[in-house]
Amino acid sequence: MFVRKKSINPASYRASSDLVPLVLAGSRAAIARMISRAEGEYDEAAGALAQLYRHAGRAHVVGITGVPGGGKSTLISALIRACSTGDNKVAIVAVDPSSPYSGGAILGDRIRMSDSAEASQAFVRSMATRGHLGGLARATFQAVDILDAAGYSPIFIETVGVGQDEVEIMTAAHTVVVLSPPGLGDDIQAIKAGVMEIADIHAVSKSDRPEAAATATAIRGMLALGSETQRSSWAPPVLTLSAPSGAGIDALKQAIDSHLLHLMESGEMVTRRRAIARTRILATINHLIRRRFDDGAETMATQLAAVTERTSDPSTAAEWLLGLNRADLA
Ligand SMILES: Nc1nc2c(ncn2[C@@H]2O[C@H](COP(=O)(O)OP(=O)(O)O)[C@@H](O)[C@H]2O)c(=O)[nH]1
Ligand SMILES: [Mg+2]
Q1: Is position 318 within any domain?
Q2: Less packed terminus of the chain by CB within 10 Å, N or C?
């Protein structure tokens, strides 16, 4: 059922199980290799990933989402500097294909320019967003596990808040920051439909621009409308910031820390961990099923033809492919 996506050079290949102790010891090279194997869906890596999952669970996972160009990458660069204190090892997983982190190089330069030795130790990884069949969320979660097991915390995940995978990825974060640039106007409604309700913290970027205050007010107004249906005792704050000047960065860091404290003290962390586990199991089921019924699969090809020609229908075809009969579905 599993197809190995990449060929492996046996001479230089190090078994994934041998990488596990190296990842746990914090080897950057081993971490990078493990993430590539998760991304490439190497069958051989499955056992090692399962082991690493069991070692993970200590990191604070912070999702940062919002429209492209909103300032997420710039903000994360500033947050890394703010979070890289003492023994903290900070990591970033960028799922935004337009992100200037590509390969980590650009962000690495920005961080190096910051003259902070700790910040230059941050681990930056961009996930390949092409060629995944519902597997992007899964590979991203696994990358977070690997970094978590290696002792990184906080781990920031950057996604553009569109697409099902991106929203799904955010549901696996402990704290979600939705970043909105100023002057979105009616677009606020568009964001609201997608990611607004998953925000634990709202931030308006580019507060150096005059429209920033009005955007913050619009978001506060929207939150006030929805506050009656709020499920948590946490009221999402609305902050404004300007990452290049550093204005508002400390306040955002404090809000992120307060949210973690709130999750721990209120007991909501338990429910959230359960919700994350659920999302991950369902994402894996989705991924495995889609892989099994890839267009190339012969059984799928037959059903595709029948449904296209209307000699069958989508429900009958799906049930047949899953090996279900009507009685199972009752
Ligand atoms: N004026 C201003 N520009 C900003 C600010 N933050 C980011 N930018 C600019 O906005 C553009 C997009 O930023 P980027 O971080 O790549 O956005 P992303 O697509 O959300 O990751 C870049 O040209 C940044 O330099 C800010 O606080 N003020
Ligand atoms: Mg970006």
Answers
A1: yes
A2: C
